[in-house]
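Dock zinc ion; give full complex structure.
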Amino acid sequence: MATTEGFRADWAQKDFYDELGVKKDATTAEIKKAYRKLARANHPDSNPGDTAKHDKFKAVAEAYDVVGDPEKRKKYDEMRELYGSGGFRGGFGGGGGFNLDDLLRDRGGAGGAGGIGDMFGDLFSGFGRGRTQSQPRPQKGADAETTATIGFTDAIDGVTISLRLTSDAPCPDCSGTGGKPGTKPHICATCEGAGFVVSGVGGAFSLNETCPACHGRQLVYDEPCPTCHGSGRGSSARTIQARIPAGVKDGQRIRLRGKGGQGEGGGPAGDLFVTVKVTPHRLFGRKDDNLTLDVPVSFDEAALGADVKIPTLGGAPVTLKIPSGTPNGRTFRVRGRGAKKKDGTNGDLLATVQVQVPAVLNEQAREAVAAYRAASEGSTLRSGLFEQAQS
Ligand SMILES: [Zn+2]
Ligand SMILES: [Zn+2]
């Protein structure tokens, strides 16, 4: 039998309340209690070889899975009510098929119970074989799109954020049927329950259009739902928790499965795409899985060599060994002190030296630099400029 998320077409034939030995209006707590008792009594572990008890165990588990879940229970109750508590034996739902023999037999037999036979009698003249659900065919919900701004460190470590989303959800009062709660629908007279009408577009061409009377729902209500005025749609805002994985980059688009718009007719929810903006860090930059850092060093440190202590992101400082004669702009790699990678290891910290020229010198320093100039007289620093300019 066909299944869609949270919705099984064969529910209509099963009395889950009876299976659990509870009343139809039992509370969730009562249902849970009854289930536990039956599950314990029929558990395969305590009843080896007893297939009857195994079957009962499976049956109560299935029943509890549905009526123990308020969402599913609501759908189940609606389905049972609409299709008349087991009077109909054909398949419902996408792929479930539609057995004409069963249909005809039910018209003559159990059809009297709950008016279900009449309903399908009308349907029968509308189309031979096809969709028999009161709801639209199961359809995946729409994908949604949003942006989120996270901190630099959160981007590296991963973070769970709250996202507030506004979406078109089914009207909560009529569950998207568009009908006044508590009233029963009829087969749409305009499309005879097909959900679409055929409109001629000049001669040989014809076009299937969604039925304007039932909006493709196949069923109509005498009284529209007062909340949504029959549209079946309710705009709602919801807050979801989304896990942003470690190592996300600025501008990256992340797909969160099943966090988009709700599906229709029991179909799965769509996906949510989050474009992540990462707030820059005051000190560290990011280059793929590596972190970058500019390290100011003095001329003498670069010339003579030095041990320079530098910070790391979220860790202890490390000492950078600058060899003598280090040019401005040289980058040193500190292994394992970068961003977390997908494989669990870390990228590197890329420290780039920026040789600084002091804006002011004290008397002693000025004399020392003057002495340095005197000592390095005859430097050929710019000789290359002129040779290359001539050629
Ligand atoms: Zn219609
Ligand atoms: Zn409504």
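Observed: Residues 174 and 181 are 6 Å apart (CA to CA).
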